[in-house]
Amino acid sequence: PNLTIHHRRTWGKKKRGSAAADDARPGIRTAPEHGDQRRLSSFLHDAVLLPGAVTMCAWLFGSVAYDGDDRPHFLMRLVLCLGLEFFYGQAFYAILLPPARKLARSLPGAKVPAGDAFCKRQESETNDPTLTWPPPGADVPPDWMELARKSKREQPFFLNHVRGSTRLRQAVFRISAALGTLTMAHVMSKWVDVAPLSDIGLAIS
């Protein structure tokens, strides 16, 4: 019996030691590396794979022979235009957002969270409640102040008031959408319509 008890105790110690060894495995410490791999995979998916796929679709769509001057059906062209514009805009956003966030963190008084989910939440804000407005000594009409005291809205005075670091990242979304539209127009003109951009009123000089 003593041997059996001793054997069980030893087995328990080995099991606890094995569990401790498992907890100390280096694989558990590679979580940041997996996060970097996920971000890289997401970047390649949004900035390379999807834009390349829709560009190939546009090229194949335009390479089909049509009789005479007939163009592809309007509905097909509309779907292709919307797809190109969306995926090109998404690609530019994936390319421009990381440097924009890095620049935003370097601005004086910037409060940019480290996590991607928190950054996205902040970038979707239309009003930052941590900002004090109006500033002390501001010449605000008394009617406005009275309305702000009575109102229970979260955004008194209908504010669209965020920090410059947030506004910079929000501007990247609009810039990316504009670049996506221009790229879509270029691809559609070159490979689908086989016509210069001047035919739709665009010219680069």
Detailed description of the structure:
The protein is an all-alpha fold. Among the domains are: 72-123 and 165-205, no CATH class; 126-161, no CATH class. Helix content is 65%, strand content 0%. The chain is built from six helices and no strands. Helix 2 (31-63) runs antiparallel to helix 3 (74-105). It starts with a helix and ends in a 13-residue tail after the last helix. Residues 9-35 are annotated as: Disordered. Residues 22-35 have a biased composition (Basic and acidic residues). The chain crosses the membrane at residues 43-62, 74-96. Keywords: Membrane, Transmembrane, Transmembrane helix.
Number of strands: 0
User: Low-confidence parts lasting 5 or more residues at pLDDT below 50?
Assistant: 1-30
Strand content: under 5%
Based on CA inertia axes, which overall geometry fits? extended
> From N to C, what is the helix and strand string?
HHHHHH
* End-to-end C-alpha gap: 96 Å
Radius of gyration of CA atoms, rounded to a whole number: 29 Å
- What's the story with the biggest beta sheet? none
Which range best describes the helical content: under 10%, 10-25%, 25-40%, 40-55%, 55-70% or over 70%? Answer: 55-70%
Count of alpha and pi helical runs? 6
The averaged pLDDT comes out at 79
Q: Name the structural class.
A: mainly alpha
Element layout with pairings:
Elements (H helix, E strand, L loop, with lengths): L1 H22 L7 H33 L10 H32 L10 H8 L18 H9 L13 H29 L13
Helix pairs in contact: 2-3, 2-6, 3-6
